[in-house]
Structures are given as C-alpha cells and as structure tokens.
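Write out the 3D structure for:
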Amino acid sequence: MDLSQYSEEQLAYIIKTKDETNLSWTEIAEKYNKKFKENKYCESLRKCYHRNKHYFDQKDAPIKTLKQIQQTKKNSSNVAKENKIIIDHLLSQDSIIEAIQNAVKEISLTKYKIPKPISKDNKKEKMTLEALLSDIHFGKLVKNEQGKIVINSEEIRVRLKKMSDQIIKEIQRNKEHFNVERLIVSCLGDLIENSSMHNIESLKGCEFGTSRQVFECIQSLYSDFFLPLALTGIKIDVIAITGNHDRNGDSQTYVNRGEDNLSFIIFKTLQLLCKNSNLTNMDFNISIKIYNHTKVYGNTILLEHGDEIRSLDRNVLTTMMNKRQSQINQIVHFYRIGHFHEPIILGQGKIMVNGSITGSDGYSDGKGYSSEALQFLNYYVETNKRKTCYFKNFPIYLEEIKK
C-alpha cells in the first residue's frame, strides 16, 4: 500500500474526519489543506480514504492480538477464581452436612413425655419470661494472661447448662406468686465463632473448624439448654435470628441473610430434633431476615443481632429501633440486640444490649470493650396499670472467679 503522498498523521486525520463527522469531501479537503498547508483535491482524499481506511486496523492487529490474549488470561483467571469459590463452598457444605449427620447420630433421641401445664390460679397474674441468648461463639478459644485456656467448647457447655438451670429455678420460684405460662428464648445470633470469617485471624482464635463448631453447637443447645427447659412443661417460643459470625465463610450477604447463614441450618436441625423427641411445647420462629419480632401481652419485642449498628449511643439505638418499627408496621415496645458483648439497659427495659456467653477475649480487650459473660432474663406481667408489661430484669452471670 503506497503511502508516499501521505504521512500516517495525515492519513489518520482523513479517516477520523470522514468517520466521525458528516462533512462532505469538499469540506474535508478545505479543512485538510488548511491544517497541513497543502493543496489536495477532494477526489484525491476520497480515493486515499477508500484505499486505506483499514490501514490502522491491520497495523494494530498484533497489539489487538496481544490484548485479546491478555483478556483471555484475565477471563480464565476470573473463571478459575469463581470455580474455586464454588468448589470451596460445595466442600464446605459437604463438611457441614456431615457435621449435622454426626450431631443427630450422637444425640440419643428419646420420646419424652411433657408434663401437663399446672392449672391456673385465677388469683395470680400471668407472667412470661424472656431469656436473651446471644454470642455463644462455639469454637472460640480464649487464653488468659498466663496462657491458660479459659474458654473452649467444654466451658461454653458448662455455661449454657448453668444458664438453663438458673432459668428453671426462676420458673419454679415465680410460680409461687404468678401463673408462669410462657418462656420466650430470644436467640440474637453468633451461635458459632467461624474459623474462616477473617481468614488466619479467625483461625488463630478457634479451637477447631467451622464444621465441628456447627456440630458442637447443635449438640449442646439441644442437650444442655433446650431439653432441660422443655421438660419443665412450660410453653417455649424460640424467636431466632442470625449473627455476623454465623456466615458460611468470609462473605456476608444482605439477601435473606437469616436463611443463607449457618445459623439457619442449626435452628432447623434443633427444630427437627425437638419435634422428633416429642417436645410438643416448643415452637421455633426462624427469620430469614436479620431481624424478627414477637408479642407479649399486647406489646411487641423486636430483636436483631446488632452488627448493622455502629455504636451504643442512645440516639443511634433509638433511630434503628424506629426504622425497624416502620418496617414491621407495628409499635415496638422493646428492642433487643447482642453483638457488642457489653450488657446495657436503657429505659424501663425498652432497649437491651445482651452480654455474651464467652466474656472477654483478646479482640474485645484490644478494642477496649467492656465484655461480660452474662445473659439477661426478663419478666413480663399482664397488666393494665403500667404503660407496658415489663416487670423486671435478672442478669445471669456465667463467669466464676476461680482462685
């Protein structure tokens, strides 16, 4: 292709002007001659264009080929990464399924006979208890300043058993003066620690992997917590939500998180175990969202884990409570969250931030949080003499100072 009459710059100008404008060849010739100080006829420019309009396409072919090769490599790399994520997810799912199967096998399913409810005394007021259960963190491993293990799965089971024992004592104690008719268990999330949530950082703080955490959690919650409570005969409503540690892996979703997370599997398995054990006084309300709610004597309790809240400032908590109130289209009388491990009560039981089962650890110490190993037990009494049915609160302390 003879380009002796035109430089590449001139040729590029002709092609660009023709392709990107609506100018006639006469107008293009005028602009060309003025720019390059030449005297070319419009017909010459027209012929040059038609002969060479693909010149730069051919010249750039090697570059385009290299670009295509690089893009192919990039696409292949992306596909490989996506395939790895999918494979890891499937392997994780297989491990979790195996953990659930093992948990069910380990638990000896006896058909229990639930005691009949005691006949109500019309002279006594009706009472409902609410146990806040959050931030269990099965699989967490905590050592003290001397390097001695203070939190592991064995200690968590001891604390869950202690909590259920204390609730049973409170049920029996309050029966003397009230018709204790119902127990609400507000499960506020973070059932497990999750060994892959923050990669190596999470793994360092775990006793074992996520699959076994799921196994240990199911086994303990059934045997150490729900079963003893159910055998009292009291009506139990489990209001369940997920926590940020309950995710599967290190990713977090906002689409039906309650169903996507591992807590959904744990709660559903517990529901089946209770049903197959003939624990007919137990009901599970498992939310696929990050919040849930229930009623007690005409008042609404709303619960969520709390990881969407950035501080424990009263105004911040009240603002989030009001947002949820609009979402469920009901007046919220009581708001319950976990996540922060720092027990707080605002108002007459209006807003409560629960403690944790595990208490303080290296992370909370480093952040300066005031973590405490306690769980709240709330009392509600049916009444028309107060603004709400909230009666009192009892903190169940789970950590014993060992001398």
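The chain has two domains: 8-59, 115-397.
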